[in-house]
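Hi L.,

You mentioned the student needs an example of a multi-chain input paired with its predicted structure. This one should do, with 314 residues in total across all chains.
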Amino acid sequence: MLDSVDAAIVRELQNDARISNKDLASKVNLAPSTCLERVRSLKARGVLRGFHADVDLGSLGRPLLAFIAVRIRPHTREVVDPFIAYTLKLPETVALSHVAGPDDFLVQVAVRDAAHLQRLLLDGFTSRREVAHLQTHLIFSHVHKWATEPYGPYGLE
Amino acid sequence: MLDSVDAAIVRELQNDARISNKDLASKVNLAPSTCLERVRSLKARGVLRGFHADVDLGSLGRPLLAFIAVRIRPHTREVVDPFIAYTLKLPETVALSHVAGPDDFLVQVAVRDAAHLQRLLLDGFTSRREVAHLQTHLIFSHVHKWATEPYGPYGLE
DNA sequence: TTCCAGCCCGAATTATATGCGGATCATGAA
DNA sequence: TTCATGATCCGCATATAATTCGGGCTGGAA
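Structure written out for the whole complex:
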C-alpha cells in the first residue's frame, strides 16, 4: 500500500516527470537519498509504470483526433486478439480500449485531416472481415487529467 | 517544423521522460549541450507540453475504468462550459473529450468498484439538469501508445 | 530487554547539467 | 566567387545533482 509520502511522490511525478530527485525530495520533505529509494520502490512495486512526454500532436502532423467505435464479429479470442494486435500497430492509433456494451472497442486515433481519417476507416477498418460496424466520433477537444488522486486510505471520498 | 533530430528526441522522451540529458544526447547523436538546447527549444515551441508519470490506477485504489457517453441539452456554450469545468473537477475523471455525434462528451473515469461507479453516475451525472442521456461502457482493458510517429516530412505514410 | 526490520539521514564520491566561447556550415547578397 | 549572417554544433569548465554507503532511530516481536 501507499503511504502519504508515496502518494505525494506519485503526485509530483504525475505533474512533472522530469523533476530532479533533489527537488522532488524537497517537495515531499525527504532527504534526496531517501527519496531516491522511495521512487525506486514505487517503480519496483509497479506503481510507477513509466514516464512519458506529452507531445502536441499537431506538431507531429496529426492535429485531428477521433474515436472509432468498432463492433467485431465473431467476438471470440481467435478474432479479438489479432484485431487488437493489428490496431495497435497502426501508426494512427493512440489508445485502444476493449469495452463492454454494444461496441466492442473504442480506438482513439490521431490523423492529419479528414481525408486521412476517411482512408484509415475504409482501408484500415471496414475492409477487415471481422469489423461488423463502425461509428466515428470526431473529437473537438480532449483534456487529459494527468494527476489522479488516490482513493481510499489517503483520499477522503 | 521538426527535423529528424527533433523527431528522435521527441520519440525518446515519449518512451522515457526521465532519461538523462546525457543519455538522450547519446541516443540522438548530439553533444549534451546541444541536446539540451534542442529540448528547450521543443518545449518553447510547444511541441513538448509536459512530462508525466504513468501510474497504475489500481495502486491508487481505482482499478475500474469506464467511458461515460453524455448527451447535454441544450448544447449551448452557457451549459457546455460549466459542464466541462464540473466534470474535470471530479476526482474520478481521467480524461474528457468533447465529440461530434449523437453523444456530446466521452468522459473516461477511474473508480474503485461498480458501486462507486453507480454512485458517480447517479450523483455526479444523472442528477444534473443538463444531462439528457448517459451510456456507460465498462473498460475491460486499455492500452495507451505513448509514442506517436510524426506524419508528413518524416513519416513515410 | 534485546533483536531486527523498516525508514531515514548526511557525507563523500560520481556523474550530470549547464553556460559559453568559438568552430563549422549553408545561404543568400554583392 | 566572396563575404556576412544566422543557425547549429561542440568541448571545456563549473555548478548541481545522483547515488552509494555507513550508521542512527523507532516500533514491534520474542
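You could point out the following to them. The first strand of chain B starts at residue 48 and ends at 55. Residues 20-22, 32-33, 36 of chain B lie near DNA strand C (CB under 10 Å from a C1').

Best wishes,
N.
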